[in-house]
Amino acid sequence: MDTIGWIGLGIMGAPMARNLLTTGYEVVAWNRSAERLDAAVAGGAQRAASPADVASRSDVVIACVTASADLEAVATGPGGAIEGIREGSVFVDMSTISPAVTREVAAKFEERGVAMLDAPISGGEQGAIDGTLSIMAGGPAEALERVRPAFEVMGSTITHCGPSGSGQTVKLCNQIAVSVNNLAMAEALVFCQRSGVDPSTMLSAITQGAAGSWQLSNLGPKVVARDFAPGFKVGLQQKDLRLALEAADGLRTPLVGVSLVHQLFAAVERAHGADVGTQALVRAIEGLAGAEVGEANEDG
Amino acid sequence: MDTIGWIGLGIMGAPMARNLLTTGYEVVAWNRSAERLDAAVAGGAQRAASPADVASRSDVVIACVTASADLEAVATGPGGAIEGIREGSVFVDMSTISPAVTREVAAKFEERGVAMLDAPISGGEQGAIDGTLSIMAGGPAEALERVRPAFEVMGSTITHCGPSGSGQTVKLCNQIAVSVNNLAMAEALVFCQRSGVDPSTMLSAITQGAAGSWQLSNLGPKVVARDFAPGFKVGLQQKDLRLALEAADGLRTPLVGVSLVHQLFAAVERAHGADVGTQALVRAIEGLAGAEVGEANEDG
To answer: Which of B116, B121, B89 is nearest to B103 (CA)?
Structure first.
């Protein structure tokens, strides 16, 4: 069984590493903040002093951090994994970052004789805890086969999307669809409310048909209940939409819907902060309409 | 068993009336064009000379036409159903029309002692043939109970949405969600293509998760196969989006996403006509991006 190096014990990384430990993997871990590393060590992980230290003591190194700059820091920055990594091992990035940055970092590892996989995830904190994530992998097929047993501990759907960067591309496609479907839900709910019709009745009438979506089924009832606790936070959604818009801009490919949603989320962040759940997109549409979903109807 | 009057034997109305005949209902029918009426008569319907004639010979009168003006013509225009309808009967409009026009027409029937239901449908031609439509009903609950046995022949989901007009409101919510979900699919597919990743691989990776929707599952593979045959036609989708935007405008409720989709469909209609399927929305995004989903990838 490979010894797994783990870099980044955040809301996703911590339960993913825990599942590897529970399955019997040796895990050598590092995290930027000490408390979360202490917790992982208490759970059986071995403490490392830096990403380079992680890499020097592992067969496969997995990073799960937030943004492109974070990944560059732990991968190729001073004290980064590349300084300790062994030839013939695999570096896996499960963060959601720029496809272009991914290809740059992968090229640097390749020079050292190390294959890199981009393998961003979807499925949220619950999917990470349950080991049912969807893993979208880009990079050499042999490297994916090498780490597949570990991926199968963390996820239930593993897709090889193509060469380096293509896992990130597919993850951004996922975020494009998620966020524009979210807008669809928000406009249907606010129009319904302003028309004087009960939004719950509307949801039950349309959710199973051609208007249906995961967003409508899972977030629609939360909006009606005014529950804006995060499954996925607006601040992280905005980070991912910036990546999509940046990549699309580089390809001179206008994403007019995503761009609109990104602007509306800016209003949500200003008024309600970055830590509310993405279903708070509806609050931007409510602001335009001057009415909240779930209020007593006064006109329509 | 009530004798059912039927007005409008189009792509939806004809199979719905046929299902009533097959179940044993007497159906008195009229249609604007003679051939479709001839076909219904050959299938067992009784021929009427006008909507007023239909109404004078029926217990319940059902209209299934295209637009608000068509419904006004057959309901309250010269020779319309209101001229023949019996006190105590029910007038049912299964077309998708304006909620405001619905309330006006319902008020006129009410003056004659006739209850009106707005009961627009979703589920497409196949749902009409199979009797599995979703029926969204607005109007008096007693009137819905009166016609429920007939509705159960035509549909599998019957929702009482509230007072007159609320069935139309819920149908417009359905079209809002459908069309903005369609945009989500189009942008994900075109971004994927321009990034050099296989769109089918992307669809299989994201369709079952948080990005999933009926549109993505059912229309995504058609786009990849360049199949633009209509399930639902762009021209009819545009009619429904006009209704939604008009109703929203009356409520001073901006629908920024729907408005964007409506504009993009205008480009599709200009270039490809009103009779292509709604999945052709992707062609507007492809036009902006200068690439077609499913082409050999040249860059990314």
So the answer is: B116
B157–A194 C-beta distance less than 8 A: no
Residue A123, SS3 per DSSP: coil
Say how many C-beta atoms besides its own lie within 10 A of residue B24's C-beta. 8
Q: What are the pLDDT digits (tens) for A170-222? A: 999 999 999 999 999 999 999 999 999 999 999 999 999 999 999 999 999 99
Do the Cβ atoms of A198 and B162 come within 8 Å? yes
Q: What is the pLDDT of residue A300?
A: 42
Is B247 within 8 Å of A191 when comparing Cβ atoms? yes
- Orientation angle between helical segments B199-206 and B166-194, nearest 10 degrees: 130
- pLDDT at position B300: 41
What is the pTM (predicted TM-score) of this model? 0.95
Name B118's bridge partners: B93, B138
The DSSP string of B218-274 is HHHHHHHTT----SSBHHHHHHHHHHHHHHHHHTT---HHHHHHHHHHHHHHHHH-T
Mark which residues 198-257 of A lie under 8 Å from B by CB.
198, 201-202, 204-206, 208-216, 218, 232, 244, 247-248, 251-257
DSSP secondary-structure letter at A164?
T
Contacts of A19 (CB under 8 A, 6+ apart): A128, A131, A153, A154
How far apart CA A189 and CA A203 sit, in angstroms, is: 8
Question: Structural domains in chain A?
Answer: 4-163 (3.40.50.720), 170-289 (1.10.1040.10)
pLDDT band per the 50, 70, 90 thresholds, residue A299? very low
Half-sphere exposure of residue A249: CA atoms within 13 angstroms, side-chain side: 9
B90-100 mean pLDDT? 97
**ipTM summary value:** 0.96
pLDDT of residue B297: 56
User: In this structure, is the dihedral angle defined by the CA atoms of residues A34, A35, A38 and A40, taken in order, positive or negative?
Assistant: negative
Percentage of chain B exceeding pLDDT 70: 98
Rounded (10°) CA dihedral B85, B90, B91, B93 = -170
Question: Which pLDDT tens digit goes with each residue over A102-111?
Answer: 999 999 999 9
Residue A232 reports pLDDT greater than 50: yes
Residue at token pair 């319907």:
B45
- Please pick, among A171, A222, A233, A239, the residue that the annotation labels catalytic: A171
Q: What is the DSSP letter of B74?
A: H
Rounded Cα gap, residues A278 and A234, in angstroms: 5
CA distance A189 to A187: 5
User: Which distant-in-sequence residues (6+ apart) come within 8 Å of B149 by Cβ?
Assistant: B2
Cα atoms found within 13 Å of the Cα of residue A8, Cβ hemisphere only? 24
Q: What is the mean pLDDT of chain A?
A: 97
- Outline where chain A has alpha helix (H): 13-23, 34-42, 51-56, 68-76, 99-111, 124-130, 141-154, 166-194, 199-206, 214-224, 234-250, 256-272, 281-289
Residue pair B261/B281 in contact by the 8 Å Cβ criterion = yes
Q: How far apart are CA B278 and CA A226, in angstroms?
A: 33
**Is residue A222 annotated as a catalytic residue, yes or no?**
no
Report the candidate in A169, A143, A119, A133 with the shortest Cα–Cα distance to residue A60: A143
Q: Summarize pLDDT for B163-204 with one digit per residue, the tens.
A: 999 999 999 999 999 999 999 999 999 999 999 999 999 999
Beta strand segments in chain B, E: 4-7, 27-30, 46-47, 60-63, 90-93, 115-118, 121-122, 133-138, 155-162
